[in-house]
Write a structure and sequence with these properties.
The protein is of the alpha+beta class and 77 residues long. 40% of the residues lie in helices and 22% in strands. It has a domain of 44 residues. A 4-stranded mixed beta sheet has the order 2-1-3-4, with helices on both faces. 22% of the residues are buried.
Length: 77
């Protein structure tokens, strides 16, 4: 199983969709709420070059936004 980290906020609808997608596929992930954690926000921006969420980090492969095709490809689904 690949390590999956999703940077998200509680109010982001695409974050909710991405997490539901992963749960529905049985993919375990670490959910990082960047809404109140300055260090984790900086970590996300450093990895992605973006301030928007969601940002998924799948074994070092960075996906900005809820891109189902890329997520499936990287996870081998």
């Amino acid at each position: 199983m690949k390590k999956v980290v999703i940077y998200s906020t509680p109010t982001c609808p695409f974050c909710q969709r991405a997490k539901k997608f992963l749960k529905d596929k049985g993919i375990e992930f670490q959910d990082v709420d960047v809404s109140e954690n300055e260090e984790r926000i900086e970590e996300m921006i450093k990895k992605s070059g973006q301030m928007g969420v969601p940002v998924l980090d799948i074994e070092g492969e960075i996906i900005v936004g809820f891109d189902v095709e890329r997520i499936e490809k990287i996870l081998g689904l």
